[in-house]
Amino acid sequence: xxxxxxxxxxxxxxxxxxxxxxxxxxxxxxxxxxxxxxxxxxxxxxxxxxxxxxxxxxxxxxxxxxxxxxxxxxxxxxxxxxxxxxxxxxxxxxxxxxxxxxxxxxxxxxxxxxxxxxxxxxxxxxxxxxxxxxxxxxxxxxxxxxxxxxxxxxxx
Length: 156
Description:
The chain has one domain (28-144). It has a two-stranded antiparallel sheet with strand order 1-2. The longest helix is centred in the N-terminal third of the chain and has 22 residues, at 35-56. The two termini are 23 Å apart. The chain is elongated. 54% of the residues lie in helices and 3% in strands. With 156 residues, it is mostly helical. The chain has helices at 35-56, 58-67, 69-86, 93-108, 119-136; strands at 31-32, 142-143. Keywords: Membrane, Transmembrane, Transmembrane helix. The chain crosses the membrane at residues 37-55, 61-87, 94-114, 120-141.
């Protein structure tokens, strides 16, 4: 231990301590998803999107499955990670599902005009697939059920 008071780590440690449980994420994080859950969500969303298009035309579903495989995984990983990161502090998972649906709809709405079936149908199919993908990983997320962190100053 150093003689300098400003280098004493015990006295000048972080003000917020971790709780007794093994919560290894941020103090305000309530819902956290790992890479496995993200991959499962993207896979379910991609399959859901192709199944929706199978109702329209089986040939289109197979073509969309093959040609959208790489873009769905790349865009799904980036957007899913960013939306999940932004929603870490929100404990209500129904809000997560609604946010994934809304982000999918708003993100794809400008590109829906490229679809022969109309801009709204194409965008809704992607948004609904994103919502179903987030709904599928409901039990894979790690939730922090503690209402608040313990205050280290309250034990003195």
